[in-house]
Amino acid sequence: MTKDNIVQLGSELLRQQAEPITDFASPQFKQLLTDMQQLMEEANGVGIAAPQIGVSRQALIIASRPTSRYPHAPLMAATVICNPRFEVIDATRIKDWEGCLSVPGIRALVPRYRVITVSYQDANGSPCQLTLEDFPARVFQHEFDHLQGLVYLDRVENNADIIAESEYFKRLAG
Fold first, then answer.
1. Which residues form the catalytic set?
2. Is the model's pLDDT at 115 over the cut of 80?
3. CA separation (Å) from 27 to 6, 31, 52, 81, 126?
4. 20-73 pLDDT, tens per residue?
5. Which domain CATH number covers 122?
6. 3-state SS string over the chain?
7. How many domains does the chain have?
8. CA end-to-end span of the chain, whole Å?
9. 41 lies in which domain range?
10. In this model, does residue 129 exceed pLDDT 80?
11. Considering the entire predicted model, what is its pTM?
């Protein structure tokens, strides 16, 4: 698989509600996680959801780290999150820039909750809980939306908040 395999905006798959993961021991599930990690790294992403690689299942990976796409991202270990739900801890919503591997060339200001607690199953199916703040919380909410059949552009409050990625990088450098 290469980053050319990432499902692009317009595909019906990105608009479907993903199905829960039930067989954590299957070779197909293990391969799914390997493919997701590889594609996310190859594309300089900080997160990826299974629907983005053509599998409508509730699996995502968040891996905040500085990349060419997000040079100021904080460093956190890659975390596999399956069958997630989350609770808002701080209802403050902050607008910040997001992009998406499935929507190349565009960035937008998106409001997201600042602090959340995520309940999920890990790659082995064990129950876990994780509290996320700021950028990692944003990445999770972005990827969680993919499991709900949403993309970040659905969360934009004003179309004027959508810009070309080239303009985003000019603002970042300026």
1. 143
2. yes
3. 21, 6, 19, 17, 17
4. 999 999 999 999 999 999 999 999 999 999 999 999 999 999 999 998 888 889
5. 3.90.45.10
6. CCHHHCCCCCCHHHHCCCECCCCCCCHHHHHHHHHHHHHHHHCCCCEEEHHHHCCCECEEEECCCCCCCCCCCCCCCCEEEEEEEEEEEEEEEEEEEEEECCEEEEEEEEEEEEEEEEEEECCCCCEEEEEEEHHHHHHHHHHHHHHCCCCHHHHCCCHHHEEEHHHHHHHHHC
7. 1
8. 36
9. 3-173
10. yes
11. 0.96
The single residue listed with the structure tokens 């890990």 is 122
Q: What angle do CA 84, 162, 137 make, to 5 degrees?
A: 25
Are the beta carbons of 18 and 58 closer than 8 angstroms?
yes
Tokens for 10, please give them: 């317009």
Q: Are 110 and 168 in contact (CB under 8 A)?
A: no
| 141, pLDDT greater than 80 | yes
pLDDT surpassing 90 at residue 93: yes
